[in-house]
Amino acid sequence: MEFLISDQRDTSLVQLGGRIRKTREARGLSLHELARLSGISAPALSLIETGKRDLRVTSLYRIAGALRIPAGDLVEPPSEGTPGRAADEGYDLGDYA
């Protein structure tokens, strides 16, 4: 079970890093330019973009701010035609009681 969780986490990090790289490139920024704008070193950003380094929430916000996009768009990009969960639907916590 722990192996599966680790694989899912690793996949998530690779996907997040890929979204950061894609957005950076779409903005026409080099790795070093994003490093200067975000205050995160270029080597650290490289590891983040390749999914080899986990990042803190504060780093995510610094990167998103430098890219001028909401941090949530890096975590899970908005998809067209997919409605969000209604706030009044609540949560099913029956398995955790």
UniProtKB/TrEMBL annotation:
Signal peptide annotation: none
InterPro entries named in the record: Cro/C1-type_HTH, Lambda_DNA-bd_dom_sf, TransReg_Diox_bact_type
UniProt entry tagged with the keyword Transferase: no
Span list, region Disordered: 72-97
GO cellular component: cytosol
CDD domains assigned to the protein according to its UniProt record, in alphabetical order: HTH_XRE
Limits of the HTH cro/C1-type domain: 20-74
GO molecular function: DNA binding; DNA-binding transcription factor activity
Pfam families for this protein: HTH_3
Protein name in UniProt: HTH cro/C1-type domain-containing protein
Domain of life of the source: Bacteria
Organism per entry: Maricaulis virginensis
Keywords: DNA-binding
